[in-house]
Write a structure and sequence with these properties.
The chain has 477 residues and is mainly alpha-helical. Helix content is 61%, strand content 5%. The protein contains 21 helices and five strands. A five-stranded mixed beta sheet has the order 2-1-3-5-4. Strand 4 and strand 5 (465-469) form a beta hairpin. Helix 2 runs antiparallel to helix 3 (73-84). It starts with 27 loop residues before the first helix and ends in an 8-residue tail after the last strand.
Length: 477
Amino acid sequence: MKGEPFFEPKTNLILENGNRNAVSEFPIIYFLMGKLWSVIGQNEFLYRLLSFVLLLLGIILFATVVQYYLKSQKYTIIYSVFMFSSPILIGYAHNFIPNPISFALNLIAGFFVFQFLQNNKLYGLIGFFVFSTLAILIKITSILVFMSFIGAFIFYELFDNNYFWRKYKIKISLLSGSFILTLALVAAWYYYAIYYNTKYDSHLFSTTIRPIWEIPAEKRNEIFWHIINTMINYAYHRVIVFALIIFGVVALFSRSINAFLKWLIVMSIGALFSYLILWYWVFDVHDYYLIEILFVFNVLFFIFLYKINSFFSFLDLKKINLALYFFIIFVVLHAYTCSWVRFSANPKLIVNNIFLKKRDIDTWRWFNYDYGINLKTLQSKSDEIKKIIQPSDTILCLRDYSPNVHLYTLGRIGYSKFLYNGFSDREAIVDAYKRGARYVVFLGSEEERAKIPYSDYVAYQYERIYIFDLKPYKKIQ
């Protein structure tokens, strides 16, 4: 497909009003990758590699900051492994959503601000501005990280001490100026995004909050238990999540924790619950929104390691280290288990309740089985299908309940069942035909195919893939 101008992004999905124009997050990564593909050809591996390498780079660079404060290579490695071993982060690290990239850019911004404050490096200020701006533009909810640290600094200076301000007055002024400019650029982009979506009457992407109070009580309760019973376990193991939150609350009353860290705990946990409340509805299905709150558990675990010897001064250092080794092994095994189940159609694991509930394993087993017999097959045959469906042809993907997945796979524009939610197959085909659809792409069994109307003219068939040609019909109604 022909690439679109940067400020006029379009989807493969044709909306109800006939437009494809829609925008949400700043699409710089997609745009640049598209330009690269236009030269070397489409290669999804490059995007996946970029996302994964950025995450590793962010963790490696940020490890130098952690090393400075922990003053222990061993603890720094444990912390870095902990950070990387979130199942949700691993699961999407090589995916096409912007959340992991924004997470990585936050870490890189943290590295640069450290270089500016501690080592007086001007490139640190520039790097902080560039990477913090990109992180928030690419995923606006990542602003919670910055607001937590800024909030902790402000309250610390107001109520406890003005140590930071006295020591870093000029540097803090420069950082404040750069962040104000960042906020201005972010505001400008989202002003344009809202204007663009309004201009084309597009409601495909949300550019606002999805708060808890907009949800019916019954649905609200359903989402709550989904978060508690299933979703939170993909941030880190649920025992670790709740243990860290409890630790954070207890640490507020510890004399060994300085005032700034206490304010940071308050702001981080506050950001966690504010995020859950303001974007509550997205947790109905979108587990990758958990990536934005990983920083809370990273902050709490850092403080734990930072003060571990004070907390457990009554224990021998060898015992502390041994406990940490067992802890990080548990974290890694949990991440491995979740990742294996997520990406394997037949996970060879002992079904137990230590890492995952049987219900979760069965869900992912079904998901991978469904992917294997449907979308994976469609992906493998996309080049053949493109020879039949020309770039000028419009299609209806009758079993795609997402906006774009099958359309993107085939590199064509058209409609999906996402647009026809609640429509019967006949109603969807009739409406799409009236809007100019030439082909219907259907994934299903022979028995299911027999129930599809207007399926007499099969232009292509392979296993569960059926492509029906609507052109031969004189009348479709």
